[in-house]
Recover the amino acids of this structure.
């Protein structure tokens, strides 16, 4: 990795080493779910690690008389999103359920996002955290593929689920989580210089893709295809070898995937041959119609929704929404949906700007690669979440946090004048000014 890139850091980047270590440990525990793998019952180890890490961070900030947190634009949007959730709780149909959902799920997401954008203060720290996340996600993929090969832990007799539960317990949610990680894994494979490291992350990329296929998720397949095309388009000039690799992978999928897989995928166009797929399609259309009916002409429901996790009360057969955007609209209101979409769009736009600014500067190739793959990761979420009720869960907020941290360390390094212009392209230092926009 370029020595220029390894010097990308915020001022005082050596601080909060304990909190950073706690964040890495929390990430491992979040993915591998020790309560399901170890004989510890319901002992709240993940919650304890999170609370200790957050306490250490805030105590250090207070004792050093530093602000409690930096406030990048994306964090301001998340705080606004949380505020609108609290308003929706008060105006909702079942405030107790909404409050429990907020405190048990989204509040943790928000606090860890705050921790991440404050303690990931250098490109080295960011790179290590990204690698840990990809390795943990690959471990989930490997466990899923092993159980799929054994014919265990399957839905409908053929669809793989995560070998641990939580956000991986449903085939569609598992496929979404792995699709989000796949472009980041490929970015690591491309940016590594050591052959062993390259091989490791190429293997991670392949395993993540195989596990998505094993879920038999139609939404997962559509998202996977979009991710593959986006990666080939964005990386084609810098890495032309990806075109034949992508073609071989697509051909292998066509030739080697079982007929049952393609039968399910083609139910996207005609579900009459698969009763479960037909029922799923009918329910999604029914939920779409019901979401419009719930809002109706009631200004309160347009502004505040029915309350977080309250849609099932007014839904069809008490089903939850299967679309993240409609879920936010129905449960938190139109203003919250605008903030939510603005958050996603901001990440995609800013990573695009950063990638464009770094393009053509060899010393900053790892930054360019990470910016491109994080942008595609968030696009994968934006597409896949049309089919999953996940706006308050972890799926989006880890890659979004990585993106915010990447931009912060690049911009702050320029401001502190810690990084000299790359020797091979001295006229390109303007990209750092553009990255601030």
């Amino acid at each position: 990795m370029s020595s220029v890139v390894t010097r990308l850091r915020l001022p005082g980047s050596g601080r909060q080493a304990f909190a950073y270590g706690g964040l890495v440990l929390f990430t491992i525990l979040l993915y591998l779910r020790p309560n399901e793998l170890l004989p510890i019952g319901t002992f709240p180890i993940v919650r304890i690690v999170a609370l200790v890490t957050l306490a250490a961070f805030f105590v250090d900030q207070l004792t050093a008389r530093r602000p409690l947190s930096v406030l990048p634009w994306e964090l301001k949007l998340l705080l606004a999103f949380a505020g609108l959730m609290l308003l929706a709780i008060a105006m909702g149909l079942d405030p107790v359920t909404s409050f429990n959902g907020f405190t048990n799920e989204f509040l943790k997401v928000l606090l860890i996002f705050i921790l991440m954008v404050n303690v990931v203060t250098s490109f080295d720290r960011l790179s290590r955290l990204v690698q840990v996340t990809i390795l943990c996600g690959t471990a989930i993929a490997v466990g899923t593929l092993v159980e799929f090969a054994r014919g265990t832990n399957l839905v409908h007799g053929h669809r793989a689920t995560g070998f641990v539960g939580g956000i991986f317990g449903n085939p569609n949610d598992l496929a979404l989580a792995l699709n989000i990680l796949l472009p980041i894994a490929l970015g690591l494979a491309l940016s590594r210089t050591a052959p062993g490291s390259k091989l490791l992350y190429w293997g991670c990329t392949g395993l993540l893709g195989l596990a998505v296929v094993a879920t038999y998720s139609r939404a997962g397949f559509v998202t996977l295809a979009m991710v593959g095309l986006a990666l080939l388009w964005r990386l084609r000039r810098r890495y032309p070898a990806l075109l034949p690799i992508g073609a071989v992978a697509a051909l292998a999928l066509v030739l080697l995937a079982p007929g049952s897989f393609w039968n399910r995928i083609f139910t996207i166009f005609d579900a009459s041959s698969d009763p479960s797929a037909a029922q799923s399609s009918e329910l999604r259309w029914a939920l779409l119609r019901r979401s419009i009916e719930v809002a109706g002409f009631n200004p309160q429901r347009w502004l505040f929704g029915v309350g977080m996790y309250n849609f099932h009360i007014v839904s069809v057969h008490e089903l939850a929404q299967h679309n993240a955007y409609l879920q936010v609209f129905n449960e938190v209101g139109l203003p919250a949906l605008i903030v939510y979409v603005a958050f996603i769009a901001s990440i995609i736009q800013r990573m695009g700007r950063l990638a464009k600014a770094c393009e053509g500067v060899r010393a900053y190739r790892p930054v360019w690669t990470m910016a491109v793959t994080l942008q595609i990761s968030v696009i994968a979420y934006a597409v896949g979440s049309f089919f999953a009720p996940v706006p308050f869960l972890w799926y989006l907020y880890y890659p979004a946090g990585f993106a915010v941290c990447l931009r912060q360390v690049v911009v702050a390094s320029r401001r502190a004048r810690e990084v000299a212009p790359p020797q091979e392209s001295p006229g390109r230092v303007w990209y750092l000014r553009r990255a601030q926009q």
Remarks:
- The radius of gyration is 22 Å.
- The chain has 20 helices and two strands.
- Residues 3-435 form one domain.
